[in-house]
Amino acid sequence: MGTTVCALADLEHGKARRFDVNGRAVAIVRIDDSVYAISDRCSHADVPLSDGEVYCDTKEIECVRHGSAFSLETGIPQTLPATQPVPVFVARVVDGHVELDMEITS
To answer: Is the whole model's pTM more than 0.85, yes or no?
Structure first.
């Protein structure tokens, strides 16, 4: 059983929102009815990824500082200057609410 974070209706499509879950900053992204959870810190610039732009077509989030884009599914940077991945977490919708498993998946 995961940690309930918010209602799916509280998230805007194509946007990231920051939550503190069990002492960890997490950016949760909604793309249509799917949700993704990624650590809210760029591995290159140490700034919040939740402030960045979400690319729904490629399921990526871009850091506002230097433009590195990270996969929402794997956390792997898709563009430089970042070279280190960011932790991602299992996120799912259960009865209209977003749940997270805080074990790092990658």
So the answer is: yes
